[in-house]
Structure formats: structure tokens, C-alpha cells
UniProtKB/TrEMBL annotation:
Entry keyword annotation includes Transmembrane: yes
Family per record: Belongs to the chloride channel (TC 2.A.49) family.
Protein name in UniProt: Chloride channel protein
Database matches in Pfam families: CBS, Voltage_CLC
MF (Gene Ontology): chloride channel activity; chloride:proton antiporter activity
Keywords noted in UniProt: CBS domain, Chloride, Ion transport, Membrane, Repeat, Transmembrane, Transmembrane helix, Transport
Gene3D superfamilies, per database record: CBS-domain, Clc chloride channel
Residue ranges crossing the lipid bilayer per the database entry: 81-102, 130-151, 181-198, 242-264, 276-299, 331-353, 368-388, 442-461, 467-489, 501-525, 531-552
Length: 762
């Protein structure tokens, strides 16, 4: 029973907080949970809603457009640029904050552990050092995992699959909330400091997207504050464009690659693109890199030297030493093949691990325990590998941050410790730039093997973490090993520089795992600051993608599929031309008349049995032909509708005249995106008998398709226009069905040909 104070009373649109009521309803559900949750990847979840990128050209929209003059349109355009600049600045500042905090906390941890190891190496009793290292890691990761598991589970992982889904047109609950950003930033700091095999670059993309969504709406629902700015942008179309700018700014801040950021948004994210949007996104990316660069330069004490454009900087690759010759191209292609196979193996292992987690490790407390276990095991593996390694290198002339002597002679350090006893970003740069002879092949081989399994186990834990840097680190290690082997085989030829092969191995491994081509080539080129390597990097990435795709999907696509998200790819399945709209559509469709009883509308909206939230408005004319209009309902569970129910909108039965106060588009924007549910409206018996004229609110020209249209045609129209509903009509223009995202995403190409997924309320 909802409290009277929280009712949205007839005639007054109050901004009630309906979260409390929803929470109350949630607490009434039975608390016991099964030990095993059966999960089938051939399901599509009905819990995900679609975003609507098509403007509804109803009377309210047209009236507002008539009122806006040329100057107002110019102002809106200027506001767009201002928002993009703010997105860039804030994303850059968040990246600086993460970088500085991680550097200080990780530095403190490594100094404490190093001091402890040095002390106990002389005295004996190194098991205490292992215990200290494992305990520090596990306790830091525990905090990071608790905040994610108990406060905001959507902040887990890198967030790239969720942002891909959002930009594809799927509404993932809580994905662009301020609370998610705070948990994401704190979580990623704690998981990197906790020594897990993770990077802080992936989560920057999610952070940028959240910042963009928040700024462009001019308010925060988490803080319950409305700043009354940028109200014009409160709709799905505008918000999606800004979120793609935020994602690009995130890539740009992470790698110092503004062009790579734009291409990432184009390749991975935005389903719809135009020239003005590209320019604005590039502007946001540039501002983001510049902000990060300026602040970090001041922090490092050289204010005028803008030398740190991204969170990870691969350092300069010298052309003279590191050039490549034509005979090396087949070697690079071979490395791409190896990267593709290893990437496919990584993804396959992670797939089975994720299935196991979904089934058995679904309680938050178990998720926290697993994260602590992985942190302790990572520290233990690192310690044992360093302890057993006898690979000693002279300390003079090396750039190791925390050299561990352990059982080496004075003036030497343990080279296994440079890989494990450091943040992953620093380890990658060391593998790229340390002079030949800095690593024993045995050291690199053991490190690659161990880190591969640790990174695979870590991705998918309930912590905020990215997979970019671990992938680069695994690839750099086996790439360097490959380079050393080549120089042995060619009796130390000058061209077989291990650093160059470390770079190619890193590209191959990352390409094999995430399967990005265009954006990743440019990101790697910008991060190394060297265009010379553009061609070999592109070859390596293409080969890795082709080989990897032969075995399994990319990591992000796989996780989207495991979450049963109705994700629409670029094209419909190739063999689907024989399917028609009649076979694909949802039926029966609930239709409304143009002037309808309020009671009928309320009953239809309260009925949860229909899967879609759009209702064609039909009107019969004397020739018995029905004309289809579409009345679209915003958000989940018909939630845009309570805005229609102040009494001013009702048409009284006695005199069919409207009261002067009319709804404006602003009323809908003020309620966006969390519209109050229909249950929060109290409609008396008398009011149920009133009539409501829907012609103001409905879209008079919805997109329709004939029922004989093939699936690829329907798919192309639906995806290219970013629709939420597509009405199917017969040859008499009568509404016979409705196509939604789930109807199209149900069909996909499997190993045995065209598969149809079943829909489930998961």
C-alpha cells in the first residue's frame, strides 16, 4: 500500500521520490535465494527497455518548435559546445584524480612491503613478508569489492559492455548515475592498489560516459538536485550523443589518444553518426587530453612541459633503433595469429568462468570473498615467482621504481620483481623500453603463463577494473620473449629488437581479446607517438581479429550476450531474408481510440502482461479503414503517462471543452528520465468516466512496415533510425502487430544456421 503523501494527486504534478516506494515493494519480496541460478545463454531478457532516438512529432513538439526563433537555436548549438568542453575538462580531472591517488597509495604499499622483504631477507622468516603482502592486497580489494557488490553492482568490470549497450539503444538501469561514477572511481583505485591483474584505463570510458550524461541533463537524480540548465537536452537522442562524447573523452584521457577516442565511439559505440557530432566529440576528446596533461605536468613539477597526455604513456619509440624491414612483415602477421589464438583461449576460459559465477557466486558476500581470494592468490603467486627466480640484473643504469634485491648480489636486483612488484602500467613500459638482456627468457615465459591465468580469473570479479592493461602486459611479455628468441636464432641481428616485438605482441594480445581494429590501431599509434608502426600494428590487429573470430566472439560481445541484453548488431543475420515482419512481430497489439475513456487508458497502462510500451491510436473512417497513429510511452512500465493526468487534460462528458491550462513539452522534460509509475496516480471513479483526447500527445506519422517486409529490411529501418517501436500494417493499413528491439535481437546466426532465442523475465 503506497502512502497517501507519495501519491501524484490529480491536478498537481509534484516531484515525489518514488524510489522509496519501489524499495518498499522490493523488501516485501521473499529474501531466500537459491544456491544455483540456472542460466542459459540462449535467452533474451525482457527486463531491458529500449531508448527512443526518434523524435515524436506531436502537437506539443510542433508548438514548441514554432515558438523557438533563430537566436534560440543558435544558443542551443553554443550550449552543445559548452557541454562538450565541460565533459572534456571533468573527464580529464577525474583521470588525474585516479592517477595521483593510485600512484601515491601503490607507492606507499610497495615501499612498506619492500622494506619488510629487505629486513626479513637478512634475518630469515620471509613468510611474514608474504603474509603482509597478501593481507594488504586482500584488505584493500575487500573494500573495493564491498562498495561495488553492496552499493552499485553495475559499477563492476570495465563498464565498456554496458556503455556499448547504452549507445546501441538499450536502457541499462543505473548505468549513467552519479552514484555509479563515485563507486567506479573509488573501486578502480582500490582494485589497482590492491595489486589485482587489472588496469585503470577501461573504467575511464564508463566514467566519461556518466559525466557526460550528468552534465548534459543539468541535474542529478542521485543528489535530488535540478540546476534548471540544459533542459532542452532532456531526451534520449541528445543524451546519447553526449554519452558517446563522454566515452571518447574517457579513451582520450586514458591513452592520450583523442583521434582514437573518436574512432572508439564510432566503432564500438554510437549506432548513429553525423558530421557535427564527430567534430564535437573530437573537441571533447582534445580538451580531455589537454586537461589531464596540464594538471599532471603541474603535479610532477614541470608546469610548462606537457609530456603526460594519457594515464598510460608507452614512451617514445626511437625510429633509428626500432625501424622495421619488409622481411619482418610475415613475422608480425604470425604474431597476430598467435595473439588471436591466445585471445580466443582467454575469452573461452573467461566465458566458462562467468557462467560459473552467474550460477553459483551470485550472493554479494560470496562475490566479496572471491575478490579477496583472487587478491591474496595474486600476491602469493607474485611472491613465489620472485622468490624462485634467480634472474639478477645490475641495478646501475636501470629505471626500476622498487628494486628488490632478495637473494641477488649487492648492486643487483631481481628482474622478475620488475614485472610483478609494480603497477601493471609501469610493467608494460618497462617491457617496451628496457634494453636487450634485461630479462631472462625463463622469467618472461613463467610471467606470461601465470599472468595470463590471473588476468583471466580477475576479469568478471565484482570490482571496477579494466582488461586493456593486463592484455597489453601479457602480450608485451610474450612479444619480448619472441624477440629474444629471434635474436638468438639470427645470432643477435640488430633488427631483432625485443622492445619492438613487445609492442607487436601487446597489440596482438589486446586485439585477440577485445577484437577492436580501427580505433585500437590509432590508439596504439598515438600512445607510442610513432606513425611508422601504423602499418604493422594494423596488420597484427586484423590478423588477431580474423583468427580470434574463427573460434569465439570478442570479450565485450560475449559479456553482453551472457547478460541476455537485446543488442542489435550492424546487420541482420545473413540468412534471414526468408523471414517476414509477420513472423517476427509481437501480437496482439493493444490499440486506443483518439478520444478514449480515462479508465480504459489507466487499465491498459496498469496491465503488465504486454511486453511493449507503445500503443497505436487508431480511428475508423467511413470506409472502415483504420488509420494508425502511435502513442509512445516513455521509460519503463508506461511511466511517461502520469504527466497526462492533471484534470486540465480531461475532456468532460457534459461539454467537450478544454480548460485553458495545457500541458507543454517542458512537463515531460521535467519528469525525464525517471517518470512516476502509473500506480502512483489516484484516479477516482468519476474521473475514470471522463474522456481524454490523445491527439496532442501521439505521433501522427509513425514509421510503419507492411507485414510482407523481410527481416533485413525491417532490421535496417529499425536500427538506422534508432526506433523503439515499429508498427506492422496489412494491405488495408490496419495495425496487425508491433516490432520491438527484442523481436529483432531474437534472431542470430549460430553454428547450425539461424537461431531463435527465447524471451525470459531474467
Amino acid at each position: 500500500q503506497l502512502t497517501p503523501s507519495s501519491f501524484l494527486r490529480i491536478g498537481q504534478l509534484s516531484n515525489v521520490d518514488l524510489n522509496e516506494d519501489i524499495r518498499e515493494l522490493e523488501t516485501e519480496l521473499p529474501r531466500q535465494r537459491p544456491n544455483e541460478i540456472p542460466h542459459n545463454e540462449k535467452l533474451l531478457s525482457l527486463k531491458y527497455e529500449s531508448l527512443d532516438y526518434d523524435n515524436s512529432e506531436n502537437q506539443l513538439f510542433l508548438e514548441e518548435e514554432r515558438r523557438i526563433n533563430h537566436t534560440a537555436f543558435r544558443t542551443v548549438e553554443i550550449k552543445r559546445w559548452v557541454i562538450c568542453a565541460m565533459i572534456g575538462i571533468l573527464t580529464g580531472l577525474v583521470a588525474c584524480f585516479i592517477d595521483i591517488v593510485v600512484e601515491n597509495l601503490a607507492g606507499l604499499k610497495y615501499r612498506v612491503v619492500k622494506g619488510n622483504i629487505d629486513k626479513f631477507t637478512e634475518k630469515g622468516g620471509l613468510s611474514f613478508s608474504l603474509l603482509l603482502w597478501a593481507t594488504l592486497n586482500a584488505s584493500v580489494v575487500m573494500v573495493g569489492s564491498v562498495i561495488v557488490a553492496f552499493i552499485e553492482p553495475v559499477a563492476a568490470g570495465s563498464g565498456i559492455p554496458q556503455i556499448k549497450c547504452y549507445l546501441n539503444g538499450v536502457k541499462i538501469p543505473h548505468v549513467v548515475r552519479l552514484k555509479t561514477l563515485v563507486i567506479k572511481v573509488c573501486g578502480v583505485i582500490l582494485s589497482v592498489v590492491g595489486g589485482l591483474a587489472v588496469g585503470k584505463e577501461g573504467p575511464m570510458i564508463h566514467s566519461g560516459a556518466v559525466i557526460a550524461a550528468g552534465i548534459s541533463q543539468g541535474r542529478s537524480t542521485s543528489l535530488k538536485r535540478d540546476f534548471k540548465i540544459f533542459e532542452y537536452f532532456r531526451r534520449d537522442t541528445e543524451k546519447r550523443d553526449f554519452v558517446s562524447a563522454g566515452a571518447a573523452a574517457g579513451v582520450s584521457a586514458a591513452f592520450g589518444a583523442p583521434v582514437g577516442g573518436v574512432l572508439f565511439s564510432l566503432e564500438e559505440g554510437a549506432s548513429f553518426w553525423n558530421q557535427f557530432l564527430t567534430w564535437r566529440i573530437f573537441f571533447a576528446s582534445m580538451i580531455s587530453t589537454f586537461t589531464l596533461n596540464s594538471v599532471l605536468s603541474v603535479y610532477h613539477g614541470n608546469a610548462w612541459d606537457l609530456s603526460s597526455p594519457g594515464l598510460i604513456n608507452f614512451g617514445r619509440f626511437d625510429n633509428e633503433k626500432m625501424g622495421y624491414t619488409i622481411q619482418e612483415i610475415p613475422i608480425f602477421i604470425f604474431m597476430g595469429v598467435v595473439g588471436g589464438i591466445l585471445g580466443a583461449l582467454f575469452n573461452a576460459l573467461n566465458y566458462w568462468l562467468t557462467m560459473f559465477r552467474i550460477r553459483y557466486i551470485h550472493r554479494p558476500c560470496l562475490q566479496v570473498v572471491e575478490a579477496m581470494l583472487v587478491a591474496a592468490v595474486t600476491a602469493t603467486v607474485g611472491f613465489v615467482m620472485i622468490y624462485c627466480s634467480r634472474d639478477c640484473q645490475p641495478i646501475q643504469g636501470s629505471t626500476v621504481a622498487y628494486p628488490l634485491q632478495l637473494f641477488c648480489d649487492d648492486g643487483e636486483y631481481n628482474s622478475m620483481a620488475t614485472a610483478f612488484f609494480n603497477t601493471p602500467e609501469k610493467s608494460v613500459v618497462n617491457l617496451f623500453h628496457d634494453p636487450p638482456g634485461s630479462y631472462n627468457p625463463m622469467t618472461l615465459g613463467m610471467f606470461t603463463l601465470m599472468y595470463f591465468f590471473l588476468a583471466c580469473w580477475t576479469y568478471g570479479l565484482t570490482v571496477s577494473a579494466g582488461v586493456f592493461i593486463p592484455s597489453l602486459l601479457i602480450g608485451a611479455a610474450w612479444g619480448r620473449l619472441f624477440g629474444i628468441s629471434l635474436s638468438y636464432l639470427t645470432k643477435g641481428s640488430i633488427w631483432a629488437d625485443p622492445g619492438k616485438y613487445a609492442l607487436m605482441g601487446a597489440a596482438a594480445q589486446l586485439g585477440g581479446i577485445v577484437r577492436m581494429t580501427l580505433s585500437l590501431t590509432v590508439i596504439m599509434m598515438e600512445a607510442t607517438g610513432n606513425v611508422t608502426y601504423g602499418f604493422p600494428i594494423m596488420l597484427v590487429l586484423m590478423t588477431a581479429k580474423i583468427v580470434g573470430d574463427y573460434f569465439v566472439e570478442g570479450l565485450y560481445d560475449m559479456h553482453i550476450q551472457l547478460q541476455s541484453v537485446p543488442f542489435l548488431h550492424w546487420e541482420a543475420p545473413v540468412t534471414s531474408h526468408s523471414l517476414t515482419a509477420r513472423e517476427v512481430m509481437s501480437t496482439p497489439v493493444t490499440c486506443l481510440r483518439r478520444i478514449e475513456r480515462v479508465g480504459t487508458v489507466v487499465d491498459i497502462l496498469s496491465d503488465t502482461s504486454s511486453n511493449h510500451n507503445g500503443f497505436p491510436v487508431v480511428e475508423s473512417n467511413p470506409d472502415t479503414t483504420q488509420v494508425g497513429w502511435l502513442l509512445l510511452v516513455g521509460g519503463h512500465a508506461r511511466v511517461g503517462w502520469p504527466c497526462l493526468f492533471p484534470p486540465q487534460v480531461f475532456v468532460e462528458r457534459a461539454n467537450l471543452s478544454l480548460v485553458q491550462r495545457r500541458l507543454k513539452l517542458k512537463d515531460f522534460r521535467d519528469a525525464y528520465p525517471r517518470f512516476p509509475p502509473i500506480q502512483s496516480i489516484h484516479v477516482s471513479q468519476d474521473e475514470r468516466e471522463c474522456m481524454i483526447d490523445l491527439s496532442e500527445f501521439m505521433n501522427p506519422s509513425p514509421y510503419t512496415v507492411p507485414q510482407e517486409a523481410s527481416l533485413p529490411r525491417v532490421f535496417k529501418l529499425f536500427r538506422a533510425l534508432g526506433l523503439r517501436h515499429l508498427v506492422v500494417v496489412d494491405n488495408r493499413n490496419e495495425v496487425v502487430g508491433m516490432v520491438t528491439r527484442k523481436d529483432l535481437a531474437r534472431y542470430r546466426l549460430g553454428k547450425e544456421g539461424l537461431e531463435e532465442l527465447s524471451l525470459a523475465q531474467t
